[in-house]
Amino acid sequence: MGEEGPARGTRRRGQTRRRLLDASFEVFAELGYGSASVEKIVERAGFTRGAFYSNFGSLEELFLAMWEDRSAAMIGAIGTALEQAAVSEPVGVDDVVEQILAMVPIDARWFGISAEFTAHALRDPALRTVIAQREAAIADALLPMVVELLGYLGRVIPDPDAFVQAIIAVHDGTMMQVLLDDDLGPALRRRADLFRHVVLAYSDVAERGSPAAMRETDRK
Predict the structure, then answer these.
(1) Residue limits of the HTH tetR-type domain (predicted)?
(2) H or E element at residue 25
């Protein structure tokens, strides 16, 4: 009985934090980071300013918590994709591209929020470092999946850093193009085609005797 009160309080605090994170996403998406305020977020969540400041020290801290939350969800999705890839091996590069695209879905609201906050962070060295670190964590989680998938095809990535940078560049650039294009079908096909070119350009056929080459030989 003595632990029931503290446990309930911890659970309630977690629920409050969750509602604030969800409400902040809605407010940031609708109004933009620059026009958002603590008052608007707590009003959306149904709390007071006291509830906000018992969980977050500032609007920036809240945003970074939301960024971390969404990053963790993406990394979790990558882990799920790895498990699925182990069950269903790709039969071609197009299958690998499909897996990559599934891991980096197009989300217009999140793209708008993150682009605006990134511009804000570029003026603040500390924030810029935090965002760069979290972007790197996502890339680090994505790379093993792609290495694994390409390994099934007997391909290797000689320069992983360059590969990840190219993937991120194509992802960010084509996402904006897709969101601005009224004809979604062709835009998505061009996006997939660019990803395919990157995968082929930044990977090589594995040398004979390497694990990737042996795996491809076994498949045949």
Answers:
(1) 14-74
(2) helix 4-31
